[in-house]
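Regression test case RT-17, inverse folding.

Input:
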């Protein structure tokens, strides 16, 4: 978008999406921008980075920031780093979306709520509302949660079914400042293709291996090359033990082949061209024992 052609009263700003793990933050952002830039999984701690998704309309640019679910159970180096990412994002946001799951509000939700600033508009987003059989129960639940904070708006949605997302976007736009667009009209994220490739492999890893795999397992892109439309991606899955390596490779390499095939197909959809993907599994014990190790592997 040419800044000189920006329409009058154009709105642009950053929208932080926060909540406890597994309330649908990544799914919501992906659906809002119309592309999969933040990975999803039932496994907690799937999102480990500050992921930006961008949607540009004729009169507004929404810059969504998907954050890791705030971790309350274990005070290890990874969780401290994830929580720091969340709190840093809140400081720079113009609008905050506080996601809760319809009918559920527990101590973990309360701990995230207590982090929210009082000088930034906060929209209460009640996700997965389609799962509530008695729709009349949504109103008292919304009233209960709204009594805990001065929310700017309350919107029940279903990210998966795209229910009420237009209403949510209209509420967000009301609170965005009048600014020229920051990104181009075709941009959907500020992350590189190399980063997105690593995230796609990690998603397939967690989806296909499941809860047996420790959350400290990660993916490193060792080489990313582009020749015309073809992208060549060489990835390493880093694990802590030989048993984890065997778990990922599977019987005669079948599980690793599934991870590779599904990851390649997702990359081709996202990048809009053919992808050649090779994946190795490597044991790298001790890499995530401290914050310096985390930074070395891209946990910012």
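Golden output:
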């Amino acid at each position: 978008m040419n800044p000189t052609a920006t329409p009058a009263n154009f709105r642009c700003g950053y929208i932080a999406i926060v909540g406890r793990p597994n309330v649908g933050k990544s799914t919501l952002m992906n659906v809002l921008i119309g592309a999969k830039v933040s990975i999803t999984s039932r496994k907690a701690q799937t999102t480990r980075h500050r992921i930006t998704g961008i949607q540009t309309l004729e009169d507004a640019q929404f810059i969504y920031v998907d954050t890791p679910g705030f971790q309350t159970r274990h005070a290890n180096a990874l969780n401290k780093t994830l929580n720091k990412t969340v709190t840093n994002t809140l400081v720079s946001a113009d609008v905050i979306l506080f996601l809760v799951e319809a009918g559920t509000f527990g101590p973990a939700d309360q701990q995230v709520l207590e982090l929210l600033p009082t000088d930034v508009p906060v929209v209460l987003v009640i996700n997965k509302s389609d799962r509530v059989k008695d729709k009349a129960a949504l109103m008292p639940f919304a009233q209960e949660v709204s009594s805990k904070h001065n929310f700017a708006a309350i919107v029940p949605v279903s990210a998966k079914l795209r229910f009420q997302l237009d209403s949510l976007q209209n509420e967000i736009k009301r609170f965005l400042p009048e600014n020229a667009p920051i990104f181009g009209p075709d941009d959907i994220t500020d992350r590189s293709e190399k980063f997105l490739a690593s995230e796609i492999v990690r998603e397939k890893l967690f989806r296909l291996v499941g809860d047996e795999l420790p959350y400290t397992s990660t993916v490193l892109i060792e080489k990313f090359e582009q020749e015309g439309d073809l992208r060549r991606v060489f990835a390493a899955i880093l694990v802590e033990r030989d048993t984890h390596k065997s778990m990922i490779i599977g019987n005669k390499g079948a599980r690793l082949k599934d991870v590779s095939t599904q990851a390649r197909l997702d990359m081709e959809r996202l990048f809009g061209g053919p992808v050649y993907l090779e994946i190795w599994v490597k044991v790298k014990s001790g890499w995530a024992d401290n914050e310096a190790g985390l930074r070395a592997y891209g946990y910012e």
